[in-house]
Amino acid sequence: MTPEQVAETYFSRMRAHDMSVVDLFHEDAVLLGLGMRVSGRQAIREFYAKAIEAGGPQPRSAGPLMTDGRRVAAEVYIDLSNGSIVHAVDIFHVEDGRIRMLNYFIADEPAAQ
Questions:
Q1: Which partner from 30, 84, 91, 102 sits 20 to 30 angstroms from 39, CA to CA?
Q2: 10-residue mean pLDDT series, the chain (113 residues)
Q3: What's residue 109's pLDDT?
Q4: CB 92 within 8 A of CB 6
Q5: Is residue 92 part of a domain?
Q6: Which H, E and C letters describe the chain, residue by residue?
C-alpha cells in the first residue's frame, strides 16, 4: 500500500472499531501523542483496545490528506461516544506499507460542529 492508502485504511478501520488497525503498524512501531510514547505492536494493540472501548472513536476528515514521500498528515475530527468531538492532526510515517511511527496532536480549541 502507498502511504496515503495506509492512512485511509487506518481511518476506515478506526471508524469500524476494527482491531486489525494494529496490523497496519510495524512490529517495533511507535505511537506518540499527549505526552506519551507507546512502543511495539503489542503495546499499541493494548492502547487501541482501551481507546476503542472507552471512546468509540469515529474519525472524519477535516480536509484532504497531505502526502510528502513516506509521510502523510491528516487533520481530523474524532466523534466520541460521549458526544464530544476532538480536533486532531495525525502524522503517519510509513515504511514498506506499514506505519513506522504515528504522531498525533490535539487542538486546543473545540472543533466546529
A1: 84
A2: 96 95 97 95 96 88 94 94 90 98 83 55
A3: 62
A4: yes
A5: yes
A6: CCHHHHHHHHHHHHHCCCHHHHHHEEEEEEEEECCEEEECHHHHHHHHHHHHHHHCCEEEECCCCEEECCEEEEEEEEECCCCCEEEEEEEEEEECCEEEEEEEEECCCCCCC
Q: What does the block give as the cell for 82?
A: 460521549
Answer yes or no: is 58 within a domain: yes
Does residue 57 belong to any structural domain of this protein? yes
**Phi, psi of 22, rounded to the nearest 5 degrees:** -65, -25
Q: Which three cell numbers stand for residue 13?
A: 478501520
Distance CA 19, CA 67 (A): 25
Q: Which domain holds residue 16?
A: 3-106
* Residue 8 pLDDT: 97
